[in-house]
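Format notes (please read before filing issues)

Several people have asked whether sequences and structure tokens are stored in separate files. They are not. Every record keeps both together, in the order shown below: the sequence lines, then the token lines. Line labels are part of the format and must not be stripped during preprocessing.
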Amino acid sequence: MSRTNYIFVDFENVQETDLDRLMGKPIKVVLVLGERHKSLPVVLVKKLLKYASQVDLVETGRGGKNALDLILAHHIGTAKKADPQGYFHILSRDKGFDALIGHLRDSGTLAARHAAFSEIPVLMNNDERVEFITQHFKSKKAPRAGKRKALESQIQVLFGKALSPSELNDTINALIGRKVLEITPTDEVVYRI
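Then the structure lines:
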């Protein structure tokens, strides 16, 4: 069973909503709207209707400093209680959410903040995944799997265990094609970066 990824969008901070990236993925999006959002663009409404089973709107109707942030945090807590195994993403450029992300991680919850839909690993296309993994392996702290099976597990963890077997295979083949790594006949992983 794949893990559900929950994406909470701070709509006051980020209006970019690339909902077409949701197609066929175990994702729930919560758009948290502030009191200023009395109407939405028609293009967005059409996308909301297209993905109605995966998207919820939360109209806060509240104003004030950090009002929307606190309401968003409440909804994350509610979702976490209902699905402790979920992966919780906050889509916002507001670094004030990093304290909440740290708190969630300290309690063993998978959580991250992103500034755009394209930065959320589970929503990436294959080229974006390969670039993300390449940068991950270039990090001095990143562990490197020695065998293909361990590499597959490591990649699945990076993407919230949401990649299909074909997406995983395509990603590994692209890493090989771009000479980031190679896999020997004995399934050893040799890194070229």
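For reference, the curators noted about this record: The two ends are 33 Å apart (CA to CA). The chain has a mean pLDDT of 89.
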